[in-house]
Amino acid sequence: MDTRLDKKQTIERWGIRFTGIVQGVGFRPLVSMWAHQLGISGFVYNDSSGVYVEAQSDIDTLQLFVDTIQEEQPRLCRITHVSITKIDPSVNDDDKEFVIAQSPVDGTVNTFISADTSPCDDCLAEMKESGRRYDYPFINCTNCGPRYSIIKSMPYDRERTTMSDFTMCEACHEEYVDVNGRRYHAEPNACEQCGPSYQLLDKNGNLCIVDDCFETAIEMISNGAIIALKGIGGYHLVCDATNDKAVQTLRERKHRKDKPFAIMAGSIDIVEDFAVVSDGDLDALSAMARPIVLLEKNDNFHASISELVAPNNHLIGVMLPYAPIHHVLVPHDAKWVMTSGNASGDSVIYDDEKAFLELQTIADYFLTHNRQIYAPVDDSIVSVVDDTPILIRRSRGYIPEPIHCESITDLPILAMGSDLKNTFASNKKQEVLLGPHIGDLASESTHNTFEWTIERYERLFDVKPKAIVMDKHPSFFSSNYGRQLSKTLNLPAIEVQHHHSHIAAVMAEYDLKYPVLGICFDGTGYGDDDTIWGGEFMLCYGAEYMRVAHIHVAPLPGGEKAVKEPWRQALWYLRNYYGEELPNIYKKWLTTLPKGWQILDKALQSDMSMMMTSSAGRLFDVIGCLLGLGNEHSFDAQIAIALESACANEEGRLLDFNYDGQVLDLVPAVQQIMDGYSQGESVSSLAASF
């Protein structure tokens, strides 16, 4: 950006305002370093709007100063705007130095903060050097470390983080004030002498007296134990991914029958032992955010990893060590299950008391630390398509950094999100602040996390919405909370159709100009006609849309029960097609159904009233079910994933369908699948055809 001013005065003093992600990223130390190198006097401080600098020197030097700062931004920094105001030069003899001044705490917040990030190369190297940070699991500097999870309020200073509980030792303080060091004003700065520390406890909270808690934990995991590990944003449950018994025990204790576990591998070499890694996958795995990346299993997977980690799935979620504790604890050749310490669909547990209360029946031991996690944050998930990373879950390593969307309104809005895999959002002009992944809003715990996190965002970023937006579903917790909030704050409540919001989100993310024909294949969503939609073709004009076509409508026998038990809808398709011949044609499949299926079958032959749906997700479930890939879900999209995995390298064939200009009737395709399966055609071929 052009920040040049006319050069009329010999000596000037500029008030320079930097906004964006400029706090907690080493920006003030960078400003101070260049001011000292260029002989500039003045000061810099964090405030509620970002970073403010007053700099005094000749015009050329000041211009070089501003340009250099923008060119040499720190690793975590993102400057979105620079403004310069000329002010009267100081004539005070005492004002000849450049200092980092105390941050004021009043005013409207107009700045953003960095995400929690993986250790930089300098810190990783320091962890292997002898000294007070050798294998120190809380190492950080201005270029890396925790931010979002430890900040209580803005501006970003140690006293307003959970590191305020730890007073820097003399050596750390010397680094903190060393203008030439990478820990100059690094707010979480600490070492083993003055900072947080880990301890190993049994499941009853008793301290394990051992020489080295990390070596002991490694040995325990290698011997089949399950460890609850407190990290940056919450607890993980950890066990050896090569040990069938350990993985099965974790599944039984966590009541997680089939849902895949993520793996943390000690190195990229180890990942390549069991997964296919493209150049795009490697970039995603090694990115600063260190997300979980969905990878294809390779031919060696079954010899390398327990099949119980991700059964009936061609993909495996993998991440590399992303926190200093992982670089201390996880051996180079490790393949460890690293799954969120929570109930399925619930928010990640981050409170120590709750962790012992809820995880002591799962974990054998707890490796925990004494630094408070102020805000929970779960792992992010990425899928790489054509070497392009696609975020499936945007959380740790990404939030709360804003997304710039040029096409959205200046009006500050709070959008509540859906009840499944909830993420809310708010905006400050064209900067969209997405909340962290919260989980399914189906428990008191996730309700509390949802409400607390929204309130935290409002405080942290001074978000003052002028309207509340929610899904039009009449029973969603998120929607009803939004409706109540709009009444409390006397703000407009804007209800949005579920699939329209999906398409509008893509339009905003990619700055697409309307009109756009959006195709939304989803599992559920409340429709304008009071049925369940999910196979939608919509012509979108931003805030307006027209439903121009949809997948055929089919009943959901048992209503919501049919979502968990897709055999119910599959039975409807079979009975509707084969009639009285069903028991003879699909006899083997019928034997896999739960006891009492005949009661539903008899009801289907009557005029029973049923909920209707155009959902594509339900149709994928039906096809998987008809092909013998499962009758019930133990986790969301389980049968659809099994259907995708069953395709292998098959190309399939074109199936029949009808289209009358409004309804895409896929019933003929379903019937071809049923006929093919009953006549012995391979499951992989039929799956690929669909």
**CATH architecture tag of the largest domain:** Alpha-Beta Complex
Q: Could you say how many structural domains there are in total?
A: 4
Straight-line N-to-C gap: 51 Å
Q: Give the number of helices.
A: 23
CATH topology term of the largest domain:
DHBP synthase
Rg from Cα = 28 Å
Portion in beta strands: 15-25%
Instruction: Give the overall form.
Output: globular
What is the β-strand count? 30
Can you characterise this structure?
With 690 residues, this protein is α+β, with helices and mostly antiparallel strands. It has four domains: 11-113, Alpha-Beta Plaits (2-Layer Sandwich), CATH 3.30.70.100; 200-369, DHBP synthase, CATH 3.90.870.40; 402-496, Nucleotidyltransferase, domain 5, CATH 3.30.420.360; 554-689, Tetracycline Repressor, domain 2 (Orthogonal Bundle), CATH 1.10.357. It is 30% helix and 22% strand. The chain contains 23 helices and 30 strands. The strands form five sheets. Strands 7, 8, 9, 10, 11, 12, 13, 14, 15, 16 and 17 form an eleven-stranded mixed sheet that branches. Strands 1, 2, 3, 4, 5 and 6 form a six-stranded mixed sheet that branches. Helix 1 (27-38) runs antiparallel to helix 2 (59-71). The longest helix has 17 residues, at 444-460. The two termini are 51 Å apart.
